[in-house]
Specification:
The chain has helices at residues 39-50, 63-80, 98-101, 127-130, 136-139, 141-149, 177-180, 191-202, 249-261, 311-322, and strands at residues 9-10, 18-24, 56-59, 86-89, 104-108, 118-121, 153-154, 165-167, 172-176, 206-210, 228-230, 235-240, 271-276, 282-283, 286-287, 296-298, 301-306, 327-332, 347-351. The chain is α/β, with parallel strands linked by helices. The chain has a 4-stranded mixed beta sheet with strand order 1-5-6-7, covered by helices on one side. Strand 14 and strand 15 (286-287) form a beta hairpin. Helix 1 (39-50) crosses helix 2. It is globular.
């Protein structure tokens, strides 16, 4: 780890240009009990869709594993007419949720040449409060990616998953009390301490706290990427239930109100926009955290999870309105979401820097 002055950096918004997207190949059959045989093909389709817009770096441990999945990925890329490289990186993982244990990249905030153009924030990781051991390989991923990319890293010294925060690239972050203040993560840190750490290491000024505990089926204690996503500096898509009488309706309305009442730069207010969820989905009797908020932004596009629901079309229209200059691509996520996450959970973008050739 290198001594870095974090004040010289900024956390880019996800809609800013990417150098690539990082993903982790699914290796844990227990994450998709009963249907794991279907997951590699579904994941390969997702990877190939990303590769239609930007390069994809896939964490795959071992040459033998690469040999096994390469034909599947190649076939999916050929079918989708992908034009960007899919690169296999020899880094072993415990599970597929790269968003939560992968690096959060910050770019230099100035044109100064005496500082590295990019750094990686290496938050601690304990599998959402110790829920799913082992997580040792996942916890080591950021250090290995930083080394692979020759990017210095900083360690704030707290537990924080990437899906727990969402930023607008202009000094505002949205998060949830139920996750960041959860006793399984940082039991000795209160809200004031957490705000201080977010301001220091994500270079933000305003922290908007959502009071809702999340959608049913979510096992992350309320990751914000299932409930609220910035689409520009001021606009926030907010998950609302398919039925106003849904069990989580009260908490999701509270989230909407918190965003509507929040301010960001220069006292301007945020603008919440409803993104209606599909009807409840189940697998083996368990409610799935199916939410269109779990989309992944790519260069020139938005990849949206679909759930074979009448609300799919409405969600695609809302996202097209939110990102008018991008191509909106929907992919069936019914199998993948049985792992209790979707496209945003499975990805971590690396923003481009000036002159980037990676």
């Amino acid at each position: 780890m290198t001594d870095i002055d974090v004040t010289q950096y900024r956390w880019p918004a996800e809609w800013e240009t990417h150098a690539c997207t990082w993903v982790s190949w699914p290796v844990n059959a227990a994450t998709w009990p009963g249907i794991f045989a279907r997951i590699p093909a579904a994941f390969a389709e997702f990877v190939a869709t990303i590769a239609c817009f930007e390069r994809v770096n896939v964490l795959v441990g071992g040459v033998d594993v690469v040999r096994g999945i390469q034909p599947l990925v190649d076939a999916a890329c050929e079918k989708s007419a992908a034009t960007f490289d899919v690169c296999m990186v020899d880094i072993r993982t415990n599970d597929a949720w790269c968003r939560d244990y992968g690096p959060m990249f910050l770019n230099s905030a100035s044109a100064a040449t005496d500082v590295p153009p990019q750094i990686a924030v290496d938050w601690g990781y304990n599998a959402w409060g110790g829920k799913y051991p082992p997580w040792d390989r996942d916890a080591a991923v950021t250090e290995q990616i930083a080394r692979h990319q020759a990017v210095p890293r900083v360690q704030p010294g707290i537990i924080l998953e990437g899906g727990a925060v969402d930023g607008n690239g202009a000094g505002t972050v949205i998060t949830t009390e139920s996750c960041l203040l959860n006793a399984g993560r940082n039991p000795r840190h209160d809200r004031a301490v957490m705000e201080s750490i977010l301001r220091q290491f994500l270079r933000v000024e305003t922290v908007v706290w959502l009071p809702g505990a999340g959608i049913l089926g979510d096992d992350t204690d309320g990751h914000v990427d299932q409930m609220a996503r910035f689409t520009d500096e001021q606009t926030v898509l907010i998950a609302v239930p398919s039925d106003s009488d849904a069990p989580e309706a009260v908490e999701l309305r509270a989230n909407y109100s918190a965003v509507a009442e929040a301010q960001y730069n220069c006292g301007a207010g945020l603008r919440p926009v409803e993104l209606r969820m599909p009807a409840p989905k189940f697998q083996q009797g368990r409610r799935l955290p199916a939410s269109y908020c779990n989309f992944h932004l790519v260069n020139g596009g938005v990849i949206v999870p679909l759930f074979n629901d009448p609300a799919d079309d409405e969600a695609m229209q809302v996202l097209q309105s939110a990102f008018p200059g991008r191509r909106i691509v929907g992919i069936d996520a019914v199998d993948l979401v049985w792992g209790l996450g979707a496209f945003h959970c499975m990805t971590q973008q690396q923003p481009a820097v000036s002159g980037d050739t990676r």
